[in-house]
């Protein structure tokens, strides 16, 4: 099954850099949006806004310049036979809804059951950011994190849960602040072994209701 999945680095995700607009073109586009909103981009308070927005975009979308496989490339095998679950929980992330380009703010819980090799724990957080700092939908981001861990580390199992609030839902549209979306991807032992999944869910503090979901 995993062999048929698209690689998270599939070129469809990364636009051809040769076709990238210049900074001046990007700033001009922001001025158009300011005018579209009904304001005057030439007034004092807005004069530097386009360049600030573009600098912000460089942070918001830094993930396009990162190769998630490279982040996990350095692994360690001297682990004294450690063969229990490794969990990094409550990884805060900021992503951007690809439908409305407004923030998705949430937490990720990432776990794996190593097969001999482990990765530095901060790399799990960097992996989350590499996918978060792009235009996203939460379901895809969840799958990308899990699939990359599986592909690179080839562990016995992977579990990823994302919980996030979507500002496209809280600040516009149905205006439901406080609603959070939960997505998960369980692979290997996390999918097949109920006790592994239960252990993960109890570590990250999720109710047993979750233990029947293995999307
Ligand atoms: Zn949206």
UniProtKB/TrEMBL annotation:
Record's catalysed reaction(s): GTP + H2O = 7,8-dihydroneopterin 3'-triphosphate + formate + H(+)
One cellular-component annotation, GO: cytoplasm
InterPro entries documented for this protein: GTP-CH-I_C/QueF (IPR043133), GTP-CH-I_N (IPR043134), GTP_CycHdrlase_I (IPR001474), GTP_CycHdrlase_I_CS (IPR018234), GTP_CycHdrlase_I_dom (IPR020602)
Pfam families for the chain: GTP_cyclohydroI (PF01227)
Basic and acidic residues: bias regions: 13-23
Any one GO biological process: one-carbon metabolic process
Residue ranges, annotated region (Disordered): 1-23
Enzyme class, first EC level, given as a word: hydrolase
Top-level taxonomic group: Bacteria
Similarity comment text for this entry: Belongs to the GTP cyclohydrolase I family.
Protein name per its UniProtKB record: GTP cyclohydrolase 1
